[in-house]
Specification:
The complex is a heterodimer of chains A (188) and B (248).
Chain A lengths: L1 H5 L4 H8 L1 H24 L2 H20 L3 H5 L3 H22 L19 H18 L4 H12 L4 H8 L3 H20 L2
Helix pairs in contact in A: 2-3, 3-4, 3-6, 3-8, 4-6, 6-9, 8-10, 9-10
Chain B lengths: L4 H7 L9 H5 L1 E6 L6 E6 L2 E7 L3 H9 L3 E3 L7 H7 L14 H11 L7 E2 H7 L6 H9 L12 E2 L12 H10 L4 H9 L4 E4 L4 E3 L14 E4 L2 H6 L3 E2 L12
Helix pairs in contact in B: 6-7
Classes of the chains: A mainly alpha (188), B alpha/beta (248).
InterPro entries (chain B): Ada-like_dom_sf (IPR035451), Ada_DNA_repair_Zn-bd (IPR004026), MethylDNA_cys_MeTrfase_DNA-bd (IPR014048), MethylDNA_cys_MeTrfase_DNAb (IPR036217), WH-like_DNA-bd_sf (IPR036388)
Catalytic activity (chain B): a 4-O-methyl-thymidine in DNA + L-cysteinyl-[protein] = a thymidine in DNA + S-methyl-L-cysteinyl-[protein]; a 6-O-methyl-2'-deoxyguanosine in DNA + L-cysteinyl-[protein] = S-methyl-L-cysteinyl-[protein] + a 2'-deoxyguanosine in DNA
GO biological process, one term (chain B): methylation
């Protein structure tokens, strides 16, 4: 156990090793914004982002409950959590595509967050709404790469781990995605 | 590169989740006093999920619900009176994760008034599975919210109180505290009397039904089955509905 602890400077991992529930609170506090932002910009809908985030953290907790201390000590929590989120997103998107589409015209791209201040919302919306809508027009793999790289600022090496593709492929998805966003934005 | 408006715009798309999201994921726990000692209670944004007595709460909750547990600052509104009186008065229960059968058993159990008991076979009949008496016992033994759903009011028809999530002793204590005369029930069962009828009203009841408790000795008649009482000209009570009982 001592060996494990000295191997483990990351506060989230340390908390998880001490107590699963308190560790979970640390994990949530450290990564909720990252997971939620990614979910929001991948799905384009506030309600879906809440669903995906809740599901990803629940799955993470259930997985951790079965992990040995050695496995937790060796965990890269951020990449591991984002991998879970990507699985949730793919599964949910697949399930949705089987269902008939709901009224897409009426559906807002993003619902208002009741917790967000009016001013902050207005500023974010000005640039946010349009760009968020453009993101929705990218193919899934380009959107995922662009969101992970430029919205939540993950390093390319970690994105490669999360998406299970080579780093070179990550870079080409990102640059193609950005080129497409510029073209789409310029066309407006 | 950092001045690129597209990249600046993308970076500004990050957002924080609402505060309430954590309560969709994690349950809260709190320790509370109750008629049978201290209890640990877990609840979610859907309502009370788990009532536990004794040690091993965290482990038991984790195995059963697989949900993170965070401490609560205070008990949710309405919990303490509900534990004391057995009346929920609007307190919500989180029964997600139970099967339809378990939920039906618990719903039927909720209808048993304080101070009264019903046999396991009555619950089975009420939910339309008269042969599933054993499964009813198992479902009650897994009741996640004892006291709030009064599974202690379901007893064996032979006069013994039967098993209980918190142990037989606790079950007897709760029933006695609610005014159930267990000695009398045992005595009646010893004489093979499971129903009481009144020759003034012509109605046959379970012995603990409030209508049966009002019958004076001179007008009281005991029966072994509802069929026998019917044959003697009695109709089943509309309050305790003993007709739905079947011989075990």
């Amino acid at each position: 156990m001592n060996v494990v602890e000295t191997d483990c400077p990351d506060p989230v991992r340390k908390a998880l090793l001490d107590d699963l529930d308190e560790g979970f609170a640390e994990l949530y506090g450290a990564y909720r914004g990252l997971v939620f932002s990614t979910a929001l910009r991948l799905s384009g809908r506030w309600a879906d982002a809440e669903d995906y985030t809740a599901e990803a953290f629940l799955r993470a907790y259930r997985a951790l409950a079965g992990y040995s201390p050695e496995r937790i000590a060796g965990l890269q929590p951020r990449a591991w959590l984002m991998t879970i989120l990507m699985n949730v997103w793919r599964n949910c998107a697949r399930a949705k595509s089987r269902r008939p589409p709901t009224d897409l015209v009426e559906e807002p791209v993003e619902e208002a967050d009741p917790g967000e201040g009016v001013e902050a919302a207005a500023v974010r919306r000005e640039i946010g709404d349009e760009l968020a809508a453009l993101l929705g027009q990218l193919p899934d793999e380009q959107r995922a790469a662009v969101v992970l790289r430029h919205v939540v600022d993950l390093p390319v090496s970690e994105i490669a781990t999360v998406l299970k593709i080579p780093q070179g492929t990550v870079k080409s998805h990102v640059s193609r995605g950005l080129r497409r966003l510029r073209a789409l934005g310029g066309a407006r | 590169m950092t001045q690129d408006p597209l990249l600046t715009g993308l970076a500004a798309l990050a957002a924080e989740p609402p505060e309430s999201l954590l309560d969709r994921i994690a349950a809260r726990w709190v320790r509370v006093p109750a008629p049978i000692g201290e209890l640990t209670v877990a609840y979610t944004d859907h309502g009370i999920a788990y009532v536990h007595a004794g040690d091993g709460f965290t482990q038991a909750f984790r195995e059963r619900f697989g949900r993170p547990l965070l401490p609560a600052a205070r008990p949710p509104a309405g919990l303490l009176p509900a534990l004391r009186t057995g009346r929920l008065s609007g307190l919500r229960l989180d029964l997600r994760g139970l099967s339809d059968f378990q939920r039906a058993v618990l719903e039927a159990t909720r209808a048993i008034p304080r101070g009264e008991v019903r046999p396991y076979s009555w619950i089975a009949a009420r939910i339309g599975s008269p042969r599933a008496v054993r499964a009813v016992g198992t479902a009650l033994g897994r009741n996640p919210v004892p006291l709030l759903i009064p599974c202690h009011r379901v007893t064996r028809s032979d006069g013994a109180v039967g098993d209980y999530v918190f142990g037989t002793t606790a079950k007897e204590r709760l029933l006695l505290a609610e005014g159930v005369d267990l000695d009398r029930l045992r005595g009646l069962a010893g004489e093979r009397v499971f129903y009481l009828a009144s020759d003034t009203t012509g109605v046959v009841c379970f012995p603990t039904c409030h209508n049966a408790r009002r019958i004076t000795p001179a007008h009281r008649h005991g029966f072994r089955s509802v069929a026998q009482a019917r044959a003697a000209g009695y109709r089943p009570c509309r309050t305790c509905r003993p007709a739905e009982d079947v011989p075990a």
